[in-house]
Amino acid sequence: MPLKLGMGDIIRLKKKHPCGGFHWEITRTGIDIGIKCLCCGRKVLISRVKLEKKIREIIPRD
């Protein structure tokens, strides 16, 4: 069953980004998920299945 991911949610991944950041903001949902690094601002488009395997923690939006 897919995780409930919404626009604006912050996720922490298992491995850090090369810039040193662990936290990403979800900018797009669907089959592919758009995420933005909160440390350097890099935007990445990744498939939902691959992303769900890499998530350690979901911090819901306010």
Summary tags:
62 residues, 11% helix, globular
Can you characterise this structure?
It holds the Pfam family DUF951. It comes from Candidatus Sediminicultor quintus. This is DUF951 domain-containing protein. The chain is mainly β and about 60 residues long. The chain has one domain (about 10-60). Helices cover about 10% and strands about 40% of the residues. The protein contains one helix and five strands; from the N terminus they run E-E-E-E-H-E. Strands 4-3-2-1-5 form a five-stranded antiparallel beta sheet, covered by helices on one side. It starts with 9 loop residues before the first strand and ends with a strand. The model has no long low-confidence stretch (mean pLDDT about 95).
